[in-house]
Specification:
It is a single chain. An eight-stranded parallel β-barrel has the order 1-4-5-6-7-10-11-12, surrounded by five helices. The longest helix is centred in the middle third of the chain and has 11 residues. The two termini are about 20 Å apart. It is globular. It is about 35% helix and about 25% strand. The chain has eleven helices and twelve strands. By secondary structure, it is of the alpha/beta class.
Length: about 250
């Protein structure tokens, strides 16, 4: 059995880490390089970095090179990827995996090209979902645009393109620290056969455990680390004591 992963998510704006609430109201956290060093020392299994300005301003490859040089864990990078060439440059800059969002909705053919060149294991889909209209609906461009596909159609397209991992993010719970949308996690985890990373709403240790119980293979979070100050090391120790198969360093 694969070990469960604890993954900090860092939103990048310029050279700064920010945190959002429902994909809005971004608050400054601190320096990106410092944050990467902190999570390296705290034994994160992986790190996801999403540049929320990159689609408009372009990908900052130099920053990615600097960040990857301080990341002593696998690094997934997303934000602003529009082509196979840009994905290739990200891998050259130190990314171990990339995550796609807008590209998946607007140009899935280009995503397939990236998968064909670099392999399924190198590509993650970041699927941002809201249930504000009564059903789970995918959105992109920072949650501003509703996708043309339903949730089920998006999951089918993930399979068709050969994407190797799914980051499922609840827009409604982002930054609110009210617990994960467990129904969403359960629904997607029963419909795909790739690892599912749950994101959006984590507040306490119990939320990590609940997400796993409902089908998550990994837990991604931001607020609990930034605002609560919870340590990844202590979370892993507590989950291990509860019988969960987490990695010890």
């Amino acid at each position: 059995m694969l070990k469960l992963r604890i993954i900090p998510v860092l939103l990048i704006r310029g050279n700064t880490i920010v945190k959002s609430v429902a994909f809005k109201d971004h608050r400054m956290i601190g320096d990106a390089i410092t944050a990467v060093k902190v999570f390296s020392n705290r034994k994160a299994d992986e790190l996801i970095m999403l540049d929320i300005d990159a689609f408009e301003k372009g990908i900052n490859y130099e920053l990615i090179r600097r960040l990857s040089g301080n990341a002593f864990m696998p690094l997934t990078v997303g934000g602003g990827i529009k082509s196979l060439e840009e994905a290739e440059e990200l891998f050259k800059s130190g990314a171990d995996k990339i995550t796609v969002n807008t590209l998946f909705h607007e140009n899935p053919h280009e995503v397939k090209k990236i998968v064909d060149v670099f392999g399924s294991q190198a590509v993650c889909l970041s699927l941002d979902v809201s249930s504000a209209k009564g059903n789970y609906l995918p959105y992109y461009r920072g949650g501003k645009i509703q996708g043309a596909n339903t949730l089920d159609e998006s999951l089918d397209l993930l399979k068709e393109l050969g994407i190797g991992e799914l980051l499922i993010n609840s827009i409604d719970r982002d930054g609110l620290m009210q617990g994960f949308d467990l129904d969403l996690i359960k629904e997607v985890s029963t419909k795909v056969d790739v690892p599912v990373i749950a994101c959006g709403g984590c507040q306490k240790l119990e939320d990590f455990c609940n997400a796993v119980d409902y089908g998550a293979d990994a837990i991604a979070a931001g607020s609990i680390f930034h605002w609560v100050g919870e340590s990844i090391i202590s979370i892993k120790e507590s989950m291990l004591n509860e019988g969960y198969n987490v990695r010890q360093h």
